[in-house]
Write a structure and sequence with these properties.
Layout: H1 2-15, H2 19-25, H3 30-43, E1 45-48, H4 51-62, E2 74-78, H5 84-97, E3 101-105, E4 108-109, H6 112-120, H7 122-125, E5 132-136, E6 139-140, H8 162-165, E7 176-180, H9 197-200, E8 209-213, H10 217-228, E9 238-245, H11 248-257, E10 263-268, H12 276-285, E11 292-297, E12 322-326, H13 332-336, E13 343-345, H14 351-364, E14 377-384, H15 387-396, E15 402-408, H16 409-418, E16 424-431, E17 442-449, E18 456-462, E19 467-471
Parallel strand pairs: 1-2, 2-3, 3-5, 4-6, 5-7, 7-8, 8-9, 9-10, 10-11, 11-12, 12-13, 13-14, 14-15, 15-16, 16-19
Antiparallel strand pairs: 17-18, 18-19
Helix pairs in contact: 1-3, 2-3, 4-5, 10-11, 11-12, 14-15, 15-16
Length: 472
């Protein structure tokens, strides 16, 4: 009878996705508490930001029977020196919790060999449950135990580390890998010590999300070259190389890879010599699969065609629904072939330029001009919008549901008048006061989180047609 009872409870718990509901169900009785706690652990995200907290958490786990410890969804470790005692504590916690996601941020390892040796054992320690590894801002406490004088130009390409990196075969369960500028240091002796992509990537047969923010373009080339050398390329659906400057050759190679990309994030920095045609070709090559696009162009040259030279307007990027275009110009030709775009962030674009090239043409020909006809979310973060521009945007996009803008008190009133279907408003800057909300039919109180200098308030305002969440 008890087994039937627990079976029914487990089926109920399987249907409960909300963490708050799971916590409430644990209060029913002892059985609900035991089964609910195990299920809650599977959804839990544990953050440990000091060696002391890591040690205390390990003690707490050791007080429990190993069989009663459920796998954790996520384990975040930050600001720790992963050496000696702390290292033992970390891997004991990983072995007991068997997390699905592991995040290491701002941690110090003894040296690169030490780091790779630990990483190579991760998946086997987790019994194959680990599917996400995120490594951000890792630093080293000492130089590697390698005689650089014996290595030609110190570029030894990990010959001495082959016994270590060969263990990465256990990473076959990894589906998401994120590394952000983790393998360079102010000490010049680490400049040539790059992650062993050519060894690791062939092991990641199930990889579908790759985020890399690397120190230089050479590191990015090694990633792309390693992928090109594979006989079977992983089905990567998300590619992010934000702040890693891409060259024309790298873009062409990424195009050759022909990945089933749904999300693409790339950057063209000051020293980039990529022409607009190369960028347009890359985007069009993934036009049938891309759903999210983020492009940062951080160089100012008259030779770059920011509108993008797209001659054939019949080639549509029909799946693209979200775009972040971080530069000071509007990609008019690109927007014209994205009929289903719902969310647009043009954080650096001049407001007058956006109104001139996008808003006014739509108002002049609302039936014939189809650019951004399905837009429901818009963000412009470079300056306070003038009231006349704000009202024009409201007229051009009457179905707008979400805005993220720099505003002051007078513009808040214009928002209320000009966007009847607005549901969510993110207010940037600090020029909005209580006076700006005069006339708004406020119904609910506000909740606060964050520091005083960057406070975040959420106010639910019952407008005539919808509930508006204001965040600033």
């Amino acid at each position: 009878m008890y087994q039937l009872f627990t079976k029914i409870i487990n089926k109920i718990l399987n249907c409960v996705q909300d963490v708050k509901q799971l916590k409430a169900l644990r209060l029913l009785n002892k059985t609900w508490n035991e089964l609910g706690t195990a299920r809650l652990s599977q959804k839990s995200s544990v953050e440990l930001n000091s060696p002391q907290r890591l040690k205390l958490y390990l003690k707490k786990l050791e007080m429990l029977e190993a069989i009663t410890i459920s796998p954790h969804r996520s384990l975040h470790i930050s600001s720790c020196d992963i050496i000696e005692e702390t290292e033992r504590h970390l891997f004991s916690v990983i072995k007991l919790t068997r997390p699905k996601e592991l995040h290491l941020t701002n941690c110090y390892f003894l040296n690169l060999r030490h780091l790779l040796n630990n990483l190579a054992d991760l998946s086997s320690i987790c019994n194959g449950s680990l599917y996400c590894v995120s490594i951000n801002d890792i630093r080293f406490l000492s130089k590697n135990n390698i005689d650089y004088e014996e290595c030609e130009e110190r570029n030894f390409k990990f010959e001495e580390m082959k016994p270590i990196v060969s263990k990465f075969i256990s990473w076959s369960s990894i589906r998401k890998l994120e590394l952000t500028d983790s393998f360079s240091d102010v000490d010049e002796s680490f400049d040539t010590l790059n992650f062993p992509w050519s060894t690791v990537l062939p092991c990641l047969i199930n990889l579908n999300i790759l985020h890399v923010q690397l120190a230089n373009s050479e590191d990015l080339s090694e990633v792309i070259t390693a992928l090109l050398d594979l006989k079977v390329v992983p089905r990567i659906t998300e590619w992010s190389s934000f702040l890693s400057n891409m060259t024309a050759e790298q873009m062409q190679s990424l195009q050759v890879l022909n990945l089933p990309l749904k999300s693409l994030d790339l950057s063209l920095m000051m020293e980039s010599a990529v022409c607009a045609q190369t960028l347009a070709s890359l985007l069009l090559s993934y036009g049938q699969t891309l759903e999210n696009l983020k492009v940062l162009i951080d160089h100012d040259t008259d030779e770059f065609d920011y509108a993008l030279p797209i001659e054939n307007q019949n080639i549509l990027m029909s799946r693209l629904i979200h775009m972040e275009w971080m530069t000071n110009a509007v990609p008019v030709n690109l927007l014209a072939i994205c009929p289903n775009l719902k969310s647009l962030n043009v954080s650096e674009v001049n407001q007058n330029l956006f109104v001139k090239e996008i808003v006014k043409p739509r108002l002049k020909n609302p039936c014939g001009n189809k650019i951004l006809e399905n837009l429901t979310s818009f963000s412009l973060e470079c300056e306070v919008l003038r009231e006349e521009n704000l009202l024009l945007i409201g007229k051009a996009f009457p179905n707008m549901k979400k805005l993220c803008l720099f505003l002051d008190d007078s513009k808040i009133r214009s928002i209320y008048k000009g966007f009847p279907n607005l549901e969510e408003l993110f207010v940037l800057g600090n020029e909005v006061t209580d006076i700006g909300f005069a006339g708004w039919p406020l119904k609910c109180s506000c909740s606060e989180e964050g520091e005083q200098e960057n406070e975040k308030f959420t106010i639910a305002c019952l407008a005539s047609k919808s509930t508006v969440n204001l965040v600033f």
